[in-house]
Amino acid sequence: MDMKKRINLELRNRSLAEIAELVLDNSRSADGEVEGLTDEFTELEFLSMVNVGLTSLSKLPSLPKLRKLELSDNNLSGSLETLSEKCPNLTYLNLSGNKIKELSNVEALQNLKSLQSLDLFNCEITSLEDYRESVFELLPQVTYLDGFDQEDNEAPDSEADDEDDDCEDGAGPTGDFDDEDDEDEDEDGSEGGEEEDEDEDDYAEEEEEEDQAGVQGQKRKRDVDDEGEDDDDDDDD
């Protein structure tokens, strides 16, 4: 499927300005250029164009809100100046599996002041002597290169970061657990109350039975007394 058709499919009857994430992986670019994307994608924050046959980014539109860009497994080479011009607020850039050979190819990324994570894995540039040290020196704003910082500490998982953000926003699991505990307490309280009610009912029934038994005993005693009096009267006769 070509890139334009894929974009139309991903829109799902939404306007371009509503799209915050767009995944075009494995679609096809007829001439190696970006197709179908326009500067009307004003809210786009995440764009993935993995393995689409790109050889140039010259037709990439202005995407001022774009934060994450996936461009792995394409045929990009030469300067990346277009990225700093069209996507000035990038924080994450994946260029792994492209034809980037020299430090001069990534020099233009110096203008991406917010860039924190850069991936050049499987690019020829990684075979250069002192590759990591040179890139960190060239791009001091970058914290993670190919998934690791200068001390070889692995980059945190982005999904875990998102979960942490949710917790900070008050949408974490703690509130749910509290609600569940309250529900459990309510259930326990209800059950306890029901048991107490049942015990009281049983006690009342026992008292009632004892009262009835006492009444019946007194009645039997009176009957016996009456029979005794009748016998005395017969004897007198």
Automatic annotation (TrEMBL):
Q: Per the record, where are the segments of Acidic residues compositional bias?
A: 148-169, 176-212, 225-237
Q: Which InterPro entries match?
A: AN32, Leu-rich_rpt, Leu-rich_rpt_typical-subtyp, LRR_dom_sf, U2A'_phosphoprotein32A_C
Where does this protein have coiled-coil stretches? none
Major location (coarse): cytoplasm
Q: Can you list the GO cellular component terms from the UniProt entry?
A: cytoplasm; nucleus
Presence of the UniProt keyword Chaperone in the record: yes
Record key words, sorted = Chaperone, Chromatin regulator, Cytoplasm, Leucine-rich repeat, Nucleus, Repeat
Biological processes per GO annotation:
chromatin organization; regulation of apoptotic process
- According to the record, the residues making up region (Disordered) are 148-237
Subcellular location, in the record's words? Answer: Cytoplasm; Nucleus
U2A'/phosphoprotein 32 family A C-terminal domain location, by residue? 128-146
PROSITE patterns from the xrefs? LRR
GO MF annotation: an example: phosphatase inhibitor activity
What's this protein's function?
A: Histone chaperone that specifically mediates the genome-wide removal of histone H2A.Z/H2AZ1 from the nucleosome: removes H2A.Z/H2AZ1 from its normal sites of deposition, especially from enhancer and insulator regions. Not involved in deposition of H2A.Z/H2AZ1 in the nucleosome. May stabilize the evicted H2A.Z/H2AZ1-H2B dimer, thus shifting the equilibrium towards dissociation and the off-chromatin state. Inhibits activity of protein phosphatase 2A (PP2A). Does not inhibit protein phosphatase 1. May play a role in cerebellar development and synaptogenesis. Multifunctional protein that is involved in the regulation of many processes.
Give the family, as the similarity comment puts it: Belongs to the ANP32 family.
Matching PANTHER family: ACIDIC LEUCINE-RICH NUCLEAR PHOSPHOPROTEIN 32, ACIDIC LEUCINE-RICH NUCLEAR PHOSPHOPROTEIN 32 FAMILY MEMBER E
Q: What is this protein called?
A: Acidic leucine-rich nuclear phosphoprotein 32 family member
Q: Which organism is it from?
A: Xyrichtys novacula (Pearly razorfish)
